[in-house]
Amino acid sequence: MNFSAERLLEFCSNLLQGVGVPKADADIVANVLVDTSLEGLDTHGISRLPIYTTRIQNGRINPIANIAVNKTAPAVAVIDGDNGLGQLVGVKAMEVAINLAKETGMGAVTVKHSNHYGASAYFCKQAAAAGMIGMGFTNTPSGIPPWGGKEPYFGTNPIAFGFPGKKQPVVVDMSSSIVARGHIILAAKQGKPIPEGWAIDKDGKPTTDAKAALGGAVLPMAGPKGYAMALAVEIMSGVLSGAAVGKEVGWIYDESTKPVDIGHTFIAMDVSKFMPAESFVSRMDQMITEIKDTPKAEGVEEIFIPGERRTMKANTRQQEGIPVPDQLLAELNDLAKSIGVPQLV
Fold first, then answer.
1. Where do runs of H (alpha helix) occur along 176-268?
2. In contact, 266 and 191? CB cutoff 8 Å
3. Torsion-angle region of 147 (φ positive above 0: left; ψ -120 to 50: alpha; else: beta)
């Protein structure tokens, strides 16, 4: 069944408020989740709402986080997320980086004691909308092995960039793994196989069984290059911030009661401090035109810029609604009924 973005925003916020999240904070988290689903990143959007609300209810995530910001230098701040919802912590942290960049040209913040924050693209779009170049790093629960190993150590550890553009921002968002773990989680929930080459089982053998993959490891993208990128992101987001690192990073899908202590780093660069913002956007537009005018390989109708297809998907879903699979809809409505908020109908 499809639902409008407005209806899902209301429902998601109500559900979060129903488990104790203040309305202003619930609205922020709902906006991140719905925006992510609008762009077709269903594994990181509203499909994550059940686990977030469940973990708030059992005390593993703090619904009323006191996010502490400590400015340690003119362009640097360190943030303690107080075990709050990752989407809320991420938005607040990027706001701090943007405000620092307005003062000094660049702003960098590290975050500890946070949670899974969804798609990194959202926070980089947040920076681009403010005329900034945005960068986001986060570590995640162990999912991929170091190159040559058979047990997971690093998370899928995404890195993302956002650049202001004339028509829309250019957004690069990619995990260090060959695929985001969320795709495997979704396949496991749906009882579907995964493609060959995505993962290995607990014995280090290739598998197409999603559940076996979750018990084993996701493979790094591009072999040793993906491993190297995962390591770099782990340093940027985990080591530098003081958050958990490697196997110490918790996973909200297990039954532990300990906070997961995920770390992030956000960087914002004020374009106008480097050149007139109009010149930057004009040069970006020229580059994009040249890229799209590149002679196309056989069978290719159009060359896309990173983030462009997500924007196209969002435009389509704004008109047609966001699809909510029957299983997820039932799960969300069961949660709503259990906490006494209106169901999604």
1. 181-190, 210-214, 224-234
2. no
3. beta
Collect the ranges in the chain with pLDDT lower than 70. none
Q: Are 155 and 142 in contact (CB under 8 A)?
A: yes
Task: For residue 91, give every residue at least 6 positions away whose Cβ sits within 8 Å of its Cβ, in sequence order, or none.
Answer: 28, 32, 122, 123, 126
Cβ neighbours for 263, distance < 8 A, ≥ 6 positions apart:
110, 111, 112, 114, 138, 139, 237, 238, 240, 241, 242, 243, 244, 245
From residue 87, alpha-carbon distances to 192, 251, 274, 344 in Å are 28, 16, 30, 22
Which pLDDT does position 148 carry in this prediction?
A: 87
* Token output for 316: 């389509």
In whole angstroms, give the CA distance from residue 308 to residue 128.
14
Residue 345: the pLDDT is 87
- C-alpha 177/C-alpha 218 separation (Å) is 7
Cα separation, 92 vs 126, in Å, equals 11
Distance of CA 195 to the CA centre of its chain: 23
The values of phi and psi at residue 300, to 5°, are -95, 125
| The pLDDT of residue 180 | 79
Q: How far apart are CA 157 and CA 142, in angstroms?
A: 9
Question: What is the separation, in whole angstroms, between the first and last Cα of the chain?
Answer: 9
The pTM for the full model equals 0.93
Measured between alpha carbons, how far is residue 27 from residues 91, 223, 330, 336, 338 in Å?
A: 12, 40, 22, 16, 21
pLDDT for 82 equals 98
Whole-number Å distance between alpha carbons of 187 and 215: 14
Total length of the chain: 345
The pair of three-digit structure tokens given for residue 76, joined into one six-digit string: 């640097």
Nearest-10 crossing angle of helices 326-339, 5-18: 40
